[in-house]
Request: fold
Amino acid sequence: MNNANTQKLLEVRDLHKSYEKDGVPTRALNGITFDVLPGEYMGIMGASGSGKTTLLNCIATIIKPTSGQILLSGTNISVFGGDELSEYRGSKIGYLFQDFALLDNLTGRENILLPLSIHDVNASTAEAKLAGIAGFLGITDVLSKFPSQMSGGQKQRVAAARCLISDPSIILADEPTGALDTKTARSLMEKLQEINRKRSRTILMVTHDPNAASFCSRILFIQDGVIFHELRRQVPAETRDHFYGRILRVMAQIGGGSANVL
Reply:
């Protein structure tokens, strides 16, 4: 990432989200504020119930925040509705789900091309994009297969291709390695890192896995709906193994309930 570039791609401002269950209000987000710069690979970590997936889903417009603002390239997406919302979801963000979210009755090719067909992209443009992304992700051989015929790693790469094909401004990944074995998870993280570095894609990833998080350039730790701590990897001087060690130390502090992390 070019640190000289101070243009903010994503701005989250004083974001709150409350739910009510059996008449009792629960605060999932309690005033979160942060920025994401173009080309960053940001991880969001925290215990179950800390608010990290709620935050991601607010940015994805899957759920609506109670208050606060989310701006993408200066535009407040929190007030989108109708066509604006459809356009944002279809072309500005790519969402990579833990459970792949592929349609079982569609082939790999059809799943990947779905976002483009919904937005009426012409066939020749769509096929050219598909060929490039499938080659990059190494899934050309599974394009004619249905999800039931694919391994977990192949499904996640097909899902990644579907996420990338509309050239989104930002990729949102929710526990993308959660359903994968260790070897396949590492392979996916290496590909995501390559997408970030070689294709200059901005990635915002929720994860509980310190191994996955060590591929990021910056990590926000969330506790009780607020930012508890932040880590930045010193690229390229700091090794991934060293960054992994720092991540583990912060996770241990969160586990101990400390509010004092260096």
Remarks:
- The chain has one domain: 10-254.
